[in-house]
Amino acid sequence: MVIEGIGFGLRHGEALLLRGANGSGKSTLLRVLAGLLRPAHGEIRWAGRPVADDPAGHRARVHYVAHTDAVKGGLTAEENLAFAAALSERRADLRAALDGMRLAALADLPAQFLSAGQRRRLALARLLASPRPLWLLDEPGVGLDQASRARLEAAIADHRRGGGLCVVATHGDVAVPDAARLELGD
Length: 186
Hints:
Blueprint lengths: L14 E5 L6 H9 L10 E2 L2 E2 L4 H6 L1 E4 L11 H12 L5 H7 L15 H14 L4 E5 L7 H16 L3 E5 L10 E4 L3
Parallel strand pairs: 1-6, 1-7, 4-5, 5-6
Antiparallel strand pairs: 2-3
Helix pairs in contact: 3-4, 3-5, 4-5
């Protein structure tokens, strides 16, 4: 078992910080919460109902940003967002998402020419392009400069003010005030 004996609940507007050493199970827990892995024991519930009863419905309410960016290099920044938004089947505001992560000037540039930090901001812009209630973020601050981390922190705060939930795996490079904490590993 990578992780066991974990239980927690979040209400609208709340956040949970996952902390722990590399290999402690943070990413695994996020994948379970996203519905990408099934728990060996126990269950994940949304509004009191097991998400296993409606996995497609659960995936539709989750934004999972992994520690890798999953950006298509041959597509422009705007095309990457449009592609992600089309998959989510939600109304997308691509310009607002690009503006929110300070990528509007790079909208027509193929992603292969973006720096690592710009690619990370593009991956995070998906959160803003097509809103979903649950954000699962795996080391979202990696590759971001201080100003970009501040924009991410502001986006998380705005999402929470609107009733959204966030579960963030971090080594401490992203501040999420008033978040509950779960330490994994020894």
